[in-house]
Amino acid sequence: MYTKPIDEITFSDIEEFVLGNNRESIVLDYKGDWPSDLAQVIAAMANTQGGVILIGVTEDNKTGLPQDILGVESARGADSLRQRVVSTAYKGVYPPVMPQVGVCSLDQDPDRAVVIVRVAPSVHTPHAVDSRRRIYVRVDSQTEPHSLATLDELEWLWDRRRQAEERRDALIEAAKERAAWILKHPTDTNEPSLLRAWVASHFYSGEDALPLNVVKELVQTRRVQSDVRGMWSFPNFAYTKRSVPLGYCVYSIEDRRAEYDELGTSGLLFSEMRLDEVNEQTGWKQLHVGLILSQIDGLLKFANLAYKQGQLWGLLQVHASLHRVKGIILYAVVDRLDRHNQELVRSPNKTILVLNETIDKEALEKTRPKFVKQAAKSILWAFGYGWDEEEFEQWYSSRILR
User: Fold this and answer.
1) Domain boundaries in the chain?
2) Fewest 10 Å CB contacts: which of 4, 36, 160, 225?
3) pLDDT in tens, 55-89
4) What angle do CA 28, 95, 199 make, to 5 degrees?
């Protein structure tokens, strides 16, 4: 109920969940009928740990255990119910919250349905309701599962976000150190350019999102093919496998072309790749933009595969950056450079921020092509090329595997 794609949840899933006697909690709320306090519940969950609201399931007020699946009237159709939730979250909560909404008709009565509302913990807390005058948080109480936030709780909201972000950043820094140690060539005098990219939970609670055995199986045996034609799979050319703290990595070192990829039980998928090649004819150092886009596309595709195997849900941070690229030439950008046009431009910067986005986990796969396009735009601008939307679309579409 917490991690399955919202559009794939069936009435049988709801029945099984109810029969499992899942008690109401900070992250779970049952509503027998359409709730008048829906905006408060959504805001409180967004302010706290996120959660799921099942509208149309009654509960015992003393124990918090589910009782009956009665559903709510759905004569106007599922889209009407979804819109009602979205409208409440958008108009009744400030800043607005956009929950995931699913609708499952009752097997015994197609005119009634259970509405599943899934709220992610928010990066924009605190969220207020009642004309921005009240801020609610979820509490562990059966009689009053959400309450007005006190000054101490408001301070806790901000502190909780800071701690979660610090935990996430510490994981990323540790992965950077491991990659630097493994990929460092003892004869390097001039460090090569590199692409550094990762996908991670925006808020890391400290709890495992993926079982260690699943992480090991994914890293050691699974590969995905990038949708950018002619490029490698992800991980690309990694042959050596080893364990790291709470995770596994694969890596390969081949002269100045090397790659390090790591997946942890936290859900962090981290990748670092050396990039610059030396043109045999000119002696110039160059970056191949197709390889960069392929690596980013493969990373996101592998992340989507991995996250379907565990309990990761909510917001993700997607990051990609190029390092030590000052003076490097960009090669094979769009049609004019694919034809080896002599209009060659060197990067004026040491570091280029390619992507730095926050998205919902469920939107990762749909957003992947957009991120590849955004990455291309960032790189072209950083190297001094103009951006031509139509030209890029033609170039990109010609390289997508159909």
Assistant:
1) 6-149, 164-397
2) 36
3) 999 999 888 899 999 999 998 889 999 999 999 99
4) 70
